[in-house]
UniProtKB/TrEMBL annotation:
Gene3D superfamilies: Glycogen Phosphorylase B
Keywords assigned by UniProt, alphabetized: Flavonoid biosynthesis, Glycosyltransferase, Transferase
Molecular function GO labels: UDP-glucosyltransferase activity
InterPro entries named in the record: UDP-glycosyltransf_plant, UDP_glucos_trans, UDP_glycos_trans_CS
Family per similarity comment: Belongs to the UDP-glycosyltransferase family.
Any Pfam family the entry gives: UDPGT
UniProt cross-references to PANTHER family, sorted A to Z: GLYCOSYLTRANSFERASE, UDP-GLYCOSYLTRANSFERASE 708D1-LIKE
Identification of the protein by name: UDP-glycosyltransferases domain-containing protein
Gene Ontology BP terms: flavonoid biosynthetic process
Keyword presence, Transferase: yes
Highest taxon, organism lineage: Eukaryota
PROSITE patterns: UDPGT
Length: 165
């Protein structure tokens, strides 16, 4: 089976996307969903122990908000910068040897090893919980993010009113 990008409008069945052999091998070991799912809803579930992510900004923010450790695998654009942020703040790990945008084929065993490493790293899990708590506080009604947004709106109002006058 070759590489295939799947999006929510794709009408191809999951067996065709993943291959019949993969479906048989993993039948009792997990769940494969081809339909559209709400990523944040999944990340908020208490059993989620980690997130393999391309590190788009929204994905990083959602993982941080829910305190979920990230295994960063950036592909293009700002994702390298975001992966570095994830690593530097202690929310996750970035395996730079995997390359950038499909530079090299990464074996499933490599991914599996890193997922196990990420999920068993107690320091990473603890830091994820701390970041999640900090993010929740920032988004509360009187949190720093809420205050910064209101200050920006007030500044914008005053600037525009002065320009109109």
């Amino acid at each position: 089976m070759g590489w295939r990008k799947v999006d929510k409008e794709d009408t191809v069945g999951i067996e065709e996307v993943l291959g019949e052999l993969f479906i048989k091998r993993t039948k009792d070991r997990g769940v494969a969903v081809k339909g559209w799912v709400e990523q944040e809803e999944i990340l908020s579930h208490p059993v989620i122990g980690g997130f393999v992510s391309h590190c788009g900004w929204n994905s990083v923010m959602e993982a941080a908000r829910h305190g979920v450790p990230v295994l960063a695998w950036p592909l293009h654009g700002d994702q390298k910068v975001n992966a570095e942020v994830v690593e530097k703040v202690g929310l996750g790990m970035w395996v730079r040897e995997w390359g950038w945008g499909g530079e090299r084929l990464v074996r499933g065993e490599e991914v599996g090893d890193k997922v196990r490493e990420m999920m068993s790293d107690e320091k990473l899990r603890r830091r994820g919980r701390e970041i999640g708590e900090e993010a929740r506080k920032a988004w509360e009604g009187s949190g720093s993010s809420q205050r910064a947004l209101m200050e920006a709106i007030d500044e914008f109002k005053h600037t525009n009113l002065a320009a109109i006058s």
